[in-house]
Design brief:
8-stranded mixed sheet, Glutaredoxin, 9 helices, two-stranded antiparallel ribbon, alpha+beta, 12 strands, disordered N terminus, about 45% helix
């Protein structure tokens, strides 16, 4: 069974004569920082789970980018990180001659995880840690014995072992090393058994780890684990579909609502200056409705859409342009928070027909409200139509 792990972990080496059992159920462990838990193929290491927890399935937290790579696919071509962009994937370090946990991990993946991933768009990529012996032909033959869809589960090797080990250790944050004193080829490579989950943008989203009850672990109840696992899979699959689909129109809708509110505010102030009090009242109510609708869309976008679509759009400008953008964004957000109670207070005074205090309050409320509305449009324009291309 898989333990859910989050937060920084520590590890301690334990010696065990028997390899892991093959009955474990893999459960996604999202959002933990890399720790140095090494597991020799013959002697799996214990992981201190005192800081373990069950993170929410919709948490948007991500870690650093997974490393770049181009390796040999078992089917004769090549596979690179660029080929996997747009779809989430799970990295599985292993090697064919391993006589420790590698075979049981592969069996667990085939028996449980592979079926659960069907229809989610998530792929599995097994990286051979013994590439000089695990040729593409031998990997292809091994993959055929698993009877899997080769587009969903890929097996790759490298021209040099050092290239693969550097990628797994630095690019996937999974420890690996060859033991020069080990004469048994099935135990020669020591590696972590945590498997990184990579999101559709190529960022590390978390890790898998196996908890074996025989080693004294205390896995969560199976039903609870599978419920979180299913929720996480749904999230990963939805993110992949969202990224492949047409971009959401909510930012454009929000900008349109801000622009509409600004125009209604200008029309409303012009109406009151000409003595058209009833028209002024209607226009200001419509401006309030536009801003309130914007707030509803804004909250929905940030708390529902963003967690399954890769997070907020970054501004790609640098230098003075980045500074100006941050000043624009900060002033917009801060004044929006300040302005809301001011707007409500101004409307309340009008409702009470306390016109003198209403006018005094409106002299402060109107310019801030107008600024927040127009800068909302500006933030949209800077982040979308006029956002510079990201630096390569």
């Amino acid at each position: 069974m898989m333990h859910i792990l989050s937060g920084p972990l520590t590890s301690s080496e334990s010696s065990h004569a028997a390899p892991r059992s093959s009955g474990g159920v893999l459960l996604i462990a999202v959002f933990l920082f890399f720790s140095g838990s090494l597991s020799a193929c013959s002697r799996p290491s214990r992981v201190d789970v005192t800081s373990a927890g069950a993170p929410a399935a919709r948490s948007p937290q991500r870690f650093e980018e997974a490393g770049d790579f181009t390796f040999q696919d078992s089917r004769g071509g090549t596979l690179s990180k660029a080929d996997l962009l747009g779809t989430p994937w799970i990295g599985v370090p292993f090697f064919l001659r391993c006589t420790g946990p590698c075979p049981s991990i592969t069996r667990d993946i085939r028996a449980k995880l592979y079926g659960d991933l069907e229809g989610t768009g998530v792929r599995i990529v097994s990286f051979s840690l013994d590439p000089e012996r695990d040729t593409t032909e031998s990997l292809d033959a091994y993959a055929k014995t698993l009877d899997v869809d080769r587009d969903r589960w890929l097996f790759v090797s490298a021209a040099k072992e050092s290239d693969m080990h550097d990628f797994v250790r630095l690019g996937l944050k999974v420890p690996v090393q060859r033991d020069p004193n080990q004469t048994d080829p099935g135990l020669a490579v020591t590696h972590g058994t945590r498997m990184p989950v990579i999101d559709a943008e190529g960022r590390i989203a978390g890790f898998y780890d196996i908890a074996d009850p025989a080693l004294g672990e205390s896995p969560p109840p199976l039903a609870e684990s599978e419920a979180l696992l299913a929720a996480r899979y749904a999230l990963i699959g939805n993110r992949a579909k969202a990224l492949a689909a047409k971009p959401t129109r909510i930012p454009l809708i929000n900008a349109s609502l801000n622009g509409t509110a600004f125009l209604l505010l200008i029309a409303g102030i012009m109406a009151i200056k000409t003595g058209a009090k009833k028209r002024h009242e209607h226009l200001m109510k419509l401006a309030f409705l536009a801003s309130a609708t914007f707030l509803g869309f804004y909250l929905y976008y940030h708390f529902v859409v963003l967690p399954i679509s890769g997070g907020p759009t970054p501004f790609n400008g640098t230098g003075i342009w980045k500074t100006l953008y941050l000043l624009l964004l900060a002033s917009h957000v801060i004044l929006a928070v300040v302005n809301l109670p001011m707007v409500l207070r101004t409307f309340w005074l009008a409702h009470k027909e306390d016109w003198e205090r209403h006018k005094r309050m409106a002299r402060w409320t109107f310019p801030i409200w107008a600024y927040v509305s127009v800068t909302g449009v500006m933030v949209y324009l800077v982040l979308y139509p006029f956002n510079p291309a990201p630096a390569v």
